[in-house]
Amino acid sequence: MSTELEQIWSRVQSRLQGAVDDSTYRVWLEPLRPRAFAHGTLTVEAHERTSAWVRERFGRLLQTCANAELGPQTAVVIAPGGEHPPAGPSRRRTPSTRPRPGHMAGTGNDPREAPVPAIDSELAPNPRFTFDQFVIGDCNRLAHAAALTVAELPGQSYSPLFICGAPGVGKTHLLRSIASLIHSCNPSLGVRACTGEGFTNEFQRALAGGGLESFKRRFRDIDVLLVDDVQFLERKARTEEEFFHTFNTLQEAGAQLVLTSDRPPRDLQALEDRLRERFAAGLVADIQAPDINTRLTILRKRIHQDRLEHPPEEALELIAKRISLNVRTLEGALIRVVAFSSLTGRPITSELASEVLDGLYPRTTQPARTLQQIEDAACQHFGLSADELLSSSRAARVAWPRQVAMYLARELTSESLPAIGRHFGRRDHSTVLHAVRRTEARIVADRSSRQAVDDLRANLQGTGS
User: Both 76 and 185 in a single domain?
Assistant: First the structure.
């Protein structure tokens, strides 16, 4: 490296170091190396495994720092190269003398060699599920930022990170993204990813087969544990006990824990208090249903990802307006419309999309209700005042009507979960989800409850708008 290039890069590095925190600089920017500076272009090398990530994450910052030092016309190119990826955060705990997963004792394997992350098949790396492919909106911004932080600096930020939200909103996508980024950029870290069901099944097999010590090594002698759908541990006493001790062991060792659930910790009522308290002690980041702009971006991203011919914008808008609950259903609707177009030879139009979606998600012929109409009808039906219905009382005579009202608000209005929660006593969206699930369970199990809900629904559907 020439002295001139070295001096140029030293000046740019000084600006980079002042623009980010020490950990980020050390992990991602310090390992960069200048290759050349010619004709107004500074070429910088990043490791081939991380160059695309550095380009997307820090390209603008590099450009700004280079412009400040070398002039506004300077261009920056980040090229793959180099022999070593970023060092990443060092393991914060004392390495165990027990063999790491994937390293058999006595085989001559160096325990410091990079183990292949242990990932259940349903959480295996998939190019569709990376941070690059995740669409960020107001509904998921905090969860995305937190997930990215722990993937870049595992064990040094939020542990545990608890991501919660309704099915299909992107929790598993973020979990897979974390696993993928750690595997690519910090392959020396021991990672294990599984579902709550997978943890339970493996623990039960270990109990039955006498392999409990081996099970403990697989889940405790690691640097990162990712568990999807942790609510599956509810009402499984022995599994909860084992997970509690696993959680404590990893946390005391400075490992990174990331958990997902369809509910926040406080709503996992069937889980032991000590587990719920530990889950809530870290950062709890919720993901809500995507808004219309986020849904449109998701559709466009999926079209680009699958290299489909771009449908007219009005067709995408129709799909985005009709499908609002979650990303999984939204993408499924797009696939159905595209497949129908391909099989029939008809171009994708808003009319075709409406025809296909009407078959999947029939539109109600009844006008939408308002939250106030539902509140009034519930008060009349159950003999309550509005103050009682919207109060903080948990008495059965008040709580059940309130849950029914929120359940029907979700069904008969286009209001978001937060809007419903605010109307019914300034509650949050997770309380609305809890009310919906409790009502669904009760009307399945109890005929009189089902009749009460059906009567109130019929009353509302017979009400003029």
Answer: no
- Nearest residue to 275 (alpha-carbon basis) of 299, 240, 317: 240
Query: Which two three-digit tokens encode residue 73?
Result: 């016309």
- pTM, whole model, 2 decimals? 0.61
301 and 281 co-located in one domain: no
| Same domain (yes/no): 325, 352 | yes
Residue among 151, 210, 203 nearest 28 (CA): 151
Task: For residues 128 and 320, give the distance between their C-alpha atoms in angstroms, rounded to a whole number.
Answer: 20
- Could you tell me the sign of the dihedral formed by the alpha carbons of 329, 261, 294, 408, in that order? positive
Range of the domain at 169: 118-287
Between helix 273-281 and helix 237-252 the angle, nearest 10°, is 30
Q: For the residues 160-186, what does the mean pLDDT come to? A: 91
103 lies in some domain: no
CA gap 373, 371 in Å, rounded: 5
- Same domain? 353 vs 440: no
Instruction: Determine the Cα–Cα distance for residues 311 and 304; give it in Å rounded to an integer.
Output: 11
Omega before residue 160 within 30° of 0, cis: yes
pLDDT per position as a tens digit, 10-25 = 899 888 888 777 767 7
Query: Do 232 and 243 contact (CB within 8 A), yes or no?
Result: no
Rg, the chain, Cα only: 26
Q: Do residues 180 and 276 share a domain?
A: yes
> Which domain CATH number covers 214?
3.40.50.300
Confidence of residue 118 (pLDDT cuts 50, 70, 90): low
The answer to whether 233 and 239 have CB atoms below 8 angstroms apart is yes
Which letter does DSSP use for residue 154 in this model? T
Count of residues making up the chain? 465
- Give me the number of domains the chain comprises: 4
Angle between helices 371-382 and 447-461 (to 10 degrees): 130
Single-letter amino acid code for the residue at 197: E
